[in-house]
Amino acid sequence: MSKRYRFIIILLVMVICFVFLWPTIHWYFLTPKDAQARALESREQIKLETSRNAQADLQELITLAGSGGDVPEGLSFLISAAKKTYKTAGQAAPAGWDARTTLSAFSSRREALDAIETKYRDDVFALKDLQKNAVQLGLDLSGGMSIVLQADMNALQERLGRSLAEEDRTDAVDRALEVLNSRIDRFGLTEPVIRRQGTDQIYVEIPGAADPERINSIIMGRGSLAFHMVDAEATETFNAYYRQNPATTFDGEGNLLDPTIVPADVMIRGVYIKDRYGLDEQARNSDGNFQYAAVKKEVGLDGNHIRSALVERNNLDGKPEVTFMLDSEGGEIFYRLTSSNVGKPLAIVLDDRIKSQATIQTAIRDAVRLTGFGMDEANNIALTLRTAALPVTLEVLNQQSVGASMGEDTIRQGLYALLGGIVVVLVFMLVFYRAAGINAVVAQILNFYIMFSILSAFNFTLTLPSIAGFILTIGMAVDANVIIFERMKEELRLGKGRKAVVDAGFDKAFWAIMDSNITTFIAALFLSQLGSGPIQGFAVSLAIGVFSSVFTSLFVSRLIFDFGTDVLHSKKVSVGWFSRQDRGEISRGLVK
Fold first, then answer.
1. Using CA atoms, how far apart are residues 27 and 31, in angstroms rounded to an integer?
2. 306-313 and 320-326 as β-strands: parallel, antiparallel, unpaired?
3. Distance CA 144, CA 387 (A)
4. N or C of the chain: less Cβ packing under 10 Å?
5. What is the DSSP letter of 30?
6. Could you tell me which residues come within 8 angstroms of residue 438 by beta carbon, excluding any fewer than 6 positions away?
7. Could you read off the pLDDT of 358-408 as tens digits, one per residue?
């Protein structure tokens, strides 16, 4: 490969790594602390705070409009929205934009309020996305969430219709542990702690920001997802009654005051959709009343029979559809259910909330397709189905934020020790190998850059064990430079020129470097498969370092030497200090 192509590849790698690393740089160094705090709030908190701030800003704008004031700098985005409104309507825009003209561009105060709230909401959610794409810090560095989950064995017994044996309880908690592990620990560096506590509790530690939504995503569904047939006639009857008696239909706990409104074999459940903040809210009819549906009390299919669920696009019209697979038992149950109810609506009920309704088109056995909704709703339904696999209902018994387990002072001292060790190694390379040491330092800095970029690209969590893995790879990469430089010294003693010395040094050191890195990678692979928690974090970071160190030691370092030979036209190779005897053996005097 020519030097030009190698240089282009290195530039391309650096650009790609910067793209990967940018969210981490932006989040930790360019995002103010107060903005970080807002982004880490729950969606409920964000909704409340955004609504309150938007109302306050709108009132300020109304006051300024009455007094002829200008639009505040923080609301300048409304001017752009106002200009767009005039342009869409084909009307001439005002000569100047003050609070009054800006406010008058909106058809109502409600529209202006929505514009302000939408801007604030989008800004906070953009920060949330940024935080998710940045490198996370583990519990030992930044703390996280500590949760105790309680398994509801009474609900499981009621669902199974029999008394629970000890093996039933053990199996239910073991399966719940497996589900939680698959949801949380997709990569080795997330390092969650998930373990049984007692006979019916699960203890979970999640590293990173103390965001309660992470807990909601873990226990979403809580094992109570089920399919129920919809009684269309009873639904119509109830809705007609509810329209006439909206205030006297339910009691304070949501129960029907007059159960005779609907047949005894059905129950009334609310229809829920996702709002702009991703929170469940009850849907409303065109008349403003809440939507309800009457579903059969008998469970048509329990959600625990679902094996997988994903969103696909129809090959004919490109519209989204949800496809989910059932196990063999669930397939037989669903086939009998759909065979006898073709043309009737089926409801997906999660935690007593109707999340979706679909009409049964034909008898279905194991592969189920749901259609008739947009992409956002399809993704929500698929998520609901995927997270309903918990064999037992889990409730949050205790939830609290935990601080860094090692303490900030200890962490700071540990990082100083690690950085100090790296600096000493690099200084040694500079002193011992002179100009060639500069080559090694540049390669190691780029090595760090690539490793942390990969860490950011895969949203890995940075912990002290993973940092130790990175430091170990730095030592391995320095070893590669040492092998190369020592081979160069041997070639220099034979009186070869710079180009021959560089070529021979890299060629003869290649397999020694590859052997050591391959064996290290194999060890890291076994550690990642057989270990857990901190061991996996160390192993995966070590594996990342193996790839990056080989690239920088053999590819980048070689290009730097070739640059000096072909571009700077250097004739000498500075790879260390030589004795007079050594200098005498070098007939061409190629050492500084």
1. 5
2. antiparallel
3. 22
4. N
5. I
6. 430
7. 888 888 877 777 776 677 767 767 766 665 556 677 888 887 776 655 556
